[in-house]
Protein 1
Amino acid sequence: MSYMQREIHEQPRVIERLVREGAAGVGKLCAAAREREIGLLLVAARGTSDHAGVFARYLFEIETGIPVSLAAPSVFTLYEADVRWERTLALGISQSGEAEDATEVLRRARAAGQLTACIVNHVESRMARAAEHVIEMRAGEERSLPATKSYTASLAAVCLLAAGLSPRPDLGRRLEDLPLLIERVLALEGEIERRAERYRYMEKCAVLARGLNQATALEVALKLAETSYVEAHPYSAADFLHGPIAIVEEGFPCFLIAPSGRGYPSMLSLAQTLHERGAETVIVSDQEEILRWAATPFHVPVTVDEALTPLLYVVIGQLFAYHLARVKGRDPDQPRGLHKVTVTR
Amino acid sequence: MSYMQREIHEQPRVIERLVREGAAGVGKLCAAAREREIGLLLVAARGTSDHAGVFARYLFEIETGIPVSLAAPSVFTLYEADVRWERTLALGISQSGEAEDATEVLRRARAAGQLTACIVNHVESRMARAAEHVIEMRAGEERSLPATKSYTASLAAVCLLAAGLSPRPDLGRRLEDLPLLIERVLALEGEIERRAERYRYMEKCAVLARGLNQATALEVALKLAETSYVEAHPYSAADFLHGPIAIVEEGFPCFLIAPSGRGYPSMLSLAQTLHERGAETVIVSDQEEILRWAATPFHVPVTVDEALTPLLYVVIGQLFAYHLARVKGRDPDQPRGLHKVTVTR
């Protein structure tokens, strides 16, 4: 068994542990945020962690009403800008905790008197040292280069934090059901493995989603690119119609992440448009209606609050990327040209 | 002469007119922003205009110190979130002024008592009606589907606004030199046309830049995709090293936008890395040093403040996309599957 496959399967336990053991630390951070009447969440991250940031970008505004800004670290590292934050919570996300440029954003924010926190797997890291509050992923060592369990752990930590600052108290409770639900998605692995074979010679594809699942599109596309060297490109279904759809021709493969929820109707209509254009669609959904348009349907056997779907649907993408890499004869644990920690200065 | 080519060449006059006639309106908006002590700029846009938003994202934090958030319109249009802004300037950008979801962000912000403004080419439009302050692009009718002059007009309007709120008074003055500088870049057209032929059978490429020119990478990639159906994908040079670089193999074409400035050193080092991997590079720069690594060098004959380079360097990309479309036998004015106004709901 490869590290990647093992770590994909560890996800239910990782999230269970994080929800159980992380709650106290998150509670302390939420108390500090309320006391300081935080009016802006500034998220600093890179790579896979940046996709968790995109999730936070949507979830926080939707659940807590706090405006969110995704930091462009080079504003500080390259241009040394003097940004005037007020009542801001700066949140770094990094598996290794060694993302230097995201850490620099936290240092600047802290020096400017703002509240700082980070979500990291390694607490002995520069980002953990730079932030006042540390939320530990508790994911255990991640040995596969393509991140899987640290990604869903980041999403779960973001959910805990949003739940703690949300007037909707049940979001946190529903997080407790997730490990069991992810187990049910993991049970689709046999089918995913079988169906991946069809894409043995796929060289490129688009990965499409809307709203809260834009993070999922970004992350699934990155997994496909990292493990199988597929040129997989993520798009918001809304942006896709503004121009990139011009690349779709007969047989062009498109992955659609389409759970029930507010984003579903536009995914359904996109599935029909792509069908008319002769695209090949891989559709992941809990809705039979949209799956009818798919060349390859993946039926998610559970329906959950849309806010939690990114934690569930990405697992299908991880498994697909893993098995596609195997079908293509690649080692998913060791993609060419990648290092686990990338330091951007 | 196609509309696209004509409109590319209109850019110096469009910017000259905008700087001359737009200054009064921008001045009024800046006075209102100062009076209300704006502490957050919220930018709402889609498609090409969103690339102008990415430019604003960098330029405002660097030049004015005001934190910037790029709105995710679906937070409002899909999820009907109740975001608690304070002392916020919501800025919409849209050529047609008909981008419904970006307009919805302005409506929400205005209803919540925030300052609202927009940059539009059509003042008889829903976005212009929704905003208190309207900055008119004054670009004239844009008939080509791929936007060119309305994009650089948006950037110039963003510069005017940032200059008005910046403690650095000379940025606005330097904008006055731009029309002449763009003329000098337009003079490269013969060379661009000649060199585009080499890419007759290019099917895909990466477009790379850093910092302020990430907007340029996004916009050049979109132009290539729209006009020539090239799968052109934009990346921050920093993010590219985190994973996507795995797709680079012998002969893979990469466009590098590399003007002098704070972003230059990392572009130079990326050019070397790509050279070692056998990539084919098209490099646009005013620096001979980096151009030595290029299969196709485009030497920009002028050196300007990095803050203004996005207005200059994108012109090379527009001309390249235009001539590549011609070489490929495509009509750049009428890409398949595109409409001038895309309404996202």
Protein 2
Amino acid sequence: MTVTFDISVSLDGYIAGPDQGAEHPLGRGGEQLHEWVVRLASWRESHGLEGGETDTPSDAIMREAATGAGAVIMGRNMFSPTRGPWEGDWRGWWGDEPPFHVPVYVLTHHAREPLEMAGGTTFHFVTDGPEAALEAARSAAGEQRVSIGGGAQTVQQYLRLGAVDEFQLHVVPVFLGGGERLFVDMPELAIERVRVVDTPQVTHMKYRVVR
Amino acid sequence: MTVTFDISVSLDGYIAGPDQGAEHPLGRGGEQLHEWVVRLASWRESHGLEGGETDTPSDAIMREAATGAGAVIMGRNMFSPTRGPWEGDWRGWWGDEPPFHVPVYVLTHHAREPLEMAGGTTFHFVTDGPEAALEAARSAAGEQRVSIGGGAQTVQQYLRLGAVDEFQLHVVPVFLGGGERLFVDMPELAIERVRVVDTPQVTHMKYRVVR
């Protein structure tokens, strides 16, 4: 029943580079934040692909992060490059079979019917705020975790609500110089380090919120 | 002849809390960033004190950071809580015998005579910019390192000038929620991780700038 998030961040604190949009879903330079993960066997497996690296501690860490969540919450901006009322038939960045395989609650100001995708992912569009989305996600997740997928504003909302139990930063040694900052106007939260695992490509830093 | 900096930073990216000034030299909550260091034998030794912890890897890391610098550069705001033309006889936050024991170049817009302190520290006030300060510091340091002491704006200036060779962040698991952000408008610098050493109180993350 815990609420967690896992997110890649540059050393200067961004989870996406400047000029995010349809042309640059991760902003300029943002793809550098994900180079470490797309090579991993665990990441490829969760995306229906074979092969990949297993000889790094990052593989087990990613496997742990990618499994055990019974529901996911994400912001509208993570789901779609468009803003405002829904037009067309945008179904997310992830193709016909998204890698979530559980119900995904998308925070939006604009109502839309649920989107059932292949492989167990259904996108639900929640218009009555982050607390309502959390309640629905908890209910869907049962005994499993609720994972906050992102982006930064969504992570910040749940940290401010005091709803996050554990989180992991995947710190990539690069300066993006601008973009979407992960931590803005944080509350005064007491946290303690759970574990830090270091590799040349990325440092995995896991924390627990102290209550 | 390398140029380095070593700085404690909160998980949300601040090197000092909100409302920095004479009453709160480190900003509200900022003292939490330094609790790990003031307990160490190496820190106490560099401040002329006895005792302290030696049974943590942080002690050797701090000893390394505190030695081998032949000159230090710091911003006016790190030296003094006042702004504008010099008034009175402010001699820094560090008492009669500051812990630097080498020439310290203070970046300021306002000329002032050098201040010779006990223990080998002399504060030089440099009014012709960061490059001039770096040249003077390099010359004074000889074969030894030049250490950028802080604060954030000074660190940013030297990163933007491409003058920094190596740096170490001491990441403390706390959210300050505001204050002086370390990395703002960074250049697109390629960096690589040198070493990460983890303890429950602080994670030491060392990087090298790739040229």
